[in-house]
């Protein structure tokens, strides 16, 4: 299976206008298993140093197998770039924690510095991720500034928390606009203006999921009210069987909360992706589409976690491939006439510190 | 020279930063590796293959460079291979084997060691088992070892500064000056000194402070530099049984001597680090679960530390010539006055009071008997 349609001189030659071309994912769990297990093994043996190169191999595999019109994406980051970024981020966090216990004032200053630098770090993180990604030999780029990052990644989360999630769609829209309007593929610009109403539609579905979960928990608590009263009261000695069922109840509640919020956030994430990506165009009227079924996506993600636990982790390579395939096969591009040849102005990757900080903090941007 | 030309692989060529793909082949021209455009439909170049004459009909090379200056991407799975020329242009081919053969022939290792390991092969079962065992060993042996080393190399000034800032913060926020009369304080301090003399740091290594607990209530705790704090509420709870208070203080000295707080700090940091390292390889859902699981395991370490300090109390009290089972009475009081009758569960930081009382009594009795 050749991945190169070298006969096609340009993107446009590959298909007629007005037809959506699905992205496909050609990786296999069997193939990724080897890469995955060797990544972990070498990471352990090298006391973590190899994890930077492991990330490169993992990303190259996933980007390279994400195919549009017969060509895969390319990931260009080098192991040492990632390693330097990680060393700086981890070093800073160690310094911060030591300072916090030894000289609390210095620790607070270091913490404040991070908060102040957050928009810059996020901006540089997205830029690094974009610049080390290419399609058809043309690199992506990101030209967003600090102000947009401040709005999307600092003001957004704050208003989301302050309104108990009610304004989350506005924050999601800011993030969508910030990334979507500042992304470039070579010299071509992307543009997006996701409408708010459908994001609220998805938000409403997620909120219903949370509500349903709370109702189930409340019913569970009501059915076990005797147990709970006995525990809170605490004056009498609890018989052993009560102790055991108390633990069972706590575990049940824990799992229920995990699944409820997990499901809601997965549904929300898929819904927002659909709205934002489907509102995105590439210069020249080329339309991007995402039609990820929200509950289908959540099912794949949650069943992946359950299967991974049941297999003591060994299902993970298949899980990762399954989720990637499901996601990318629900992504498509419609070309509005010929794209023509695209040139990329040469840009330096920059440092990976921002990207590593961002993934250290739990969110990872990939294109 | 031209007769030596040999086709290495078919593929596509891109000028630097250009999306325009030119159908091309990589040619071995002896001292240089060149990338030649392949003539399109019906052109004679198609049938004539590579070793044709370098005559007029052959287009000029798209790129050409000595082998040593080529930058060849590592092989990963079945992904097409990229070969970058010094001018920034790139040749891409799906024929990984041909590129590997070229590299081997030129004395560079074609298939990297890592890729050879990664290939789907029965050997992977061994690698998987090895990774599993190694991961377990790191968690079970290497992590505790690293924690011990970290505790050993931590200069004593670190726990001192930690303790100082903790006590300052508590004094400013929760505590008030003790309202115990000077006589009681002196008596308790005197008894404490006898106890402290038996501790690992000697009598001067520990200081006892009295405070009004406020929101903290009846409590005693130790800071890692040997500073102990006992609240008035605890003294009141003892209702005159000062021997019992010494039992509690001996337990706290145990926490100091066994360096529990530093150990737990380093352990938590180590586990967080381990989870972070494999986070990308396990996905964010599993990462969350591991973090929660690590929290539960940390609780079990906390319970173990409490039991250890209980046993330490028994020994220390005996050495100081006091009642080794005094701490057990504290748990009786705790059960009676605060209703703490629960047994240990996986969600508690301390073992259940009845359980601890029994363990202490057994230990005190057993040791006296022998």
Protein architecture, described:
The complex is a heterodimer of chains A (367) and B (370). Chain A is of the alpha+beta class and 367 residues long. Chain A has one domain. Chain A is 62% helix and 11% strand. Chain A contains twelve helices and eleven strands. Chain A has helices at 29-45, 51-64, 79-102, 104-131, 146-162, 168-182, 196-223, 225-233, 240-278, 294-310, 316-328, 353-360; strands at residues 20-22, 24-25, 66-68, 71-75, 133-135, 138-142, 183-185, 188-192, 280-282, 286-290, 331-334. Chain A has an eleven-stranded antiparallel β-sheet with strand order 1-11-10-9-8-7-6-5-4-3-2. In chain A, strand 5 (133-135) and strand 6 form a beta hairpin. The longest helix of chain A has 39 residues, at 240-278. Chain A is globular, with a radius of gyration of 24 Å. The two termini of chain A are 24 Å apart. Chain B is of the alpha+beta class and 370 residues long. Chain B folds into three domains: 2-118, PH-domain like, CATH 2.30.29; 120-153; 155-369, no CATH class. In chain B, 53% of the residues lie in helices and 15% in strands. Chain B has a seven-stranded antiparallel β-sheet with strand order 4-3-2-1-7-6-5. In chain B, strands 8-9-11-10 form a four-stranded mixed β-sheet, with helices on both faces. In chain B, strand 5 and strand 6 form a beta hairpin. In chain B, helix 4 runs antiparallel to helix 9 and helix 6 packs across helix 8. The longest helix of chain B has 36 residues, at 284-319. The radius of gyration of chain B is 36 Å and the shape is rod-shaped.
């Amino acid at each position: 299976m050749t991945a190169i349609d070298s006969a096609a001189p340009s993107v446009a030659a590959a298909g007629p206008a007005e037809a959506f071309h699905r992205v496909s994912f050609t990786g296999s769990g069997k193939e990724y298993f080897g890469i995955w297990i060797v990544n972990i093994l070498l990471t352990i043996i090298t006391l973590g140093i190899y994890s930077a190169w492991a990330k490169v191999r993992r990303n190259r595999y996933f980007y390279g197998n994400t195919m549009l019109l017969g060509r895969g994406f390319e990931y260009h980051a080098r192991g040492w770039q990632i390693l330097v970024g990680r060393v700086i981020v981890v070093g800073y966090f160690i310094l911060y924690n030591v300072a916090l216990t030894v000289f609390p004032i210095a620790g607070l200053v270091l913490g404040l510095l991070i908060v102040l630098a957050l928009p810059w770090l996020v901006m540089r993180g997205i830029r690094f991720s974009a610049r080390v990604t290419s399609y058809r030999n043309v690199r992506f780029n990101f030209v967003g500034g600090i102000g947009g990052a401040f709005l999307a990644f600092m003001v957004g989360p704050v208003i989301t928390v302050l309104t108990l999630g009610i304004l989350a769609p506005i924050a999601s829209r800011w993030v969508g606009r910030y990334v979507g309007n500042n992304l470039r593929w070579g010299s071509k610009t992307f543009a997006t203006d996701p409408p708010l109403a459908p994001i609220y539609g998805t938000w409403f579905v997620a909120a219903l999921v949370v509500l349903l979960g709370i109702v189930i928990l409340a019913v569970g608590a009501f059915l076990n009210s005797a147990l709970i009263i006995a525990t809170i009261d605490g004056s009498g000695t609890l018989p052993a069987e009560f102790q055991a069922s108390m633990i069972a109840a706590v575990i049940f509640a824990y799992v229920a909360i995990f699944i409820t919020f997990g499901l809601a956030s997965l549904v929300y994430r898929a819904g927002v992706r659909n709205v934002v990506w489907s509102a995105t165009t590439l210069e020249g009227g080329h339309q991007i589409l995402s039609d990820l079924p929200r509950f289908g996506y959540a099912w794949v993600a949650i069943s992946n976690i359950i299967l991974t636990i049941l297999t003591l982790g060994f299902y993970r390579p298949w899980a990762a491939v399954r989720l990637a395939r499901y996601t990318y096969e629900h992504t498509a591009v419609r070309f509005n006439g010929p794209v023509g040849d695209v040139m990329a102005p040469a840009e330096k990757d920059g440092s990976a510190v921002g990207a590593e900080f961002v993934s250290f903090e739990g969110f990872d941007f990939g294109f | 020279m031209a007769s030596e030309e040999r086709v290495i692989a078919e593929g596509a060529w891109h000028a630097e930063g250009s999306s325009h793909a030119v159908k091309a082949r990589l040619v071995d021209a002896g001292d240089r590796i060149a990338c030649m455009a392949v003539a399109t439909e019906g052109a004679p170049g198609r049938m004539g293959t590579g070793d044709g004459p370098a005559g007029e009909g052959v287009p000029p090379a798209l790129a050409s460079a000595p082998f040593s200056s080529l930058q060849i991407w590592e092989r990963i799975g079945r992904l097409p291979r990229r070969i970058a020329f010094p001018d920034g242009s790139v040749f891409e081919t799906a024929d990984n084997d041909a590129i590997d053969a070229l590299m081997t022939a030129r004395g560079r290792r074609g298939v990297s060691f890592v890729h050879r390991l990664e290939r789907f092969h029965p050997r992977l079962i061994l690698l998987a088992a090895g990774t599993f065992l190694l991961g377990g060993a790191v968690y079970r042996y290497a992590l505790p070892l690293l924690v011990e080393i970290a505790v050993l190399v931590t200069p004593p000034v670190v726990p001192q500064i930690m303790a100082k800032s903790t006590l300052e913060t508590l004094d400013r926020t929760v505590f008030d000056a003790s309202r115990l009369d000077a006589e009681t304080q002196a008596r308790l301090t005197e008894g404490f000194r006898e106890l402290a003399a038996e501790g690992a740091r000697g009598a001067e290594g520990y200081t006892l402070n009295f405070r009004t607990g406020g929101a903290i209530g009846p409590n005693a705790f130790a800071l890692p530099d040997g500073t102990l704090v006992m609240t008035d509420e605890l003294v009141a709870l003892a209702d005159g049984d000062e021997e019992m208070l010494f039992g509690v203080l001996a337990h706290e000295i145990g926490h100091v001597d066994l360096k529990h707080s530093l150990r737990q700090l380093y352990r938590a940091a180590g586990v967080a680090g381990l989870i972070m390292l494999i986070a990308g390889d396990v996905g964010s859902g599993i990462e969350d679960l591991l973090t929660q699981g690590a929290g539960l395991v940390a609780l079990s370490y906390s319970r173990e530390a409490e039991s250890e300090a209980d046993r330490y109390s028994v020994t220390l009290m005996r050495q100081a010539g006091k009642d080794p089972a005094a701490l057990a009475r504290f748990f009786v009081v705790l059960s009676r006055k605060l209703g703490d009758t629960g047994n240990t569960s996986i969600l508690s930081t301390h073992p259940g009071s009845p359980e601890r009382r029994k363990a202490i009594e057994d230990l005190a009795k057993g040791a006296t008997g022998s």
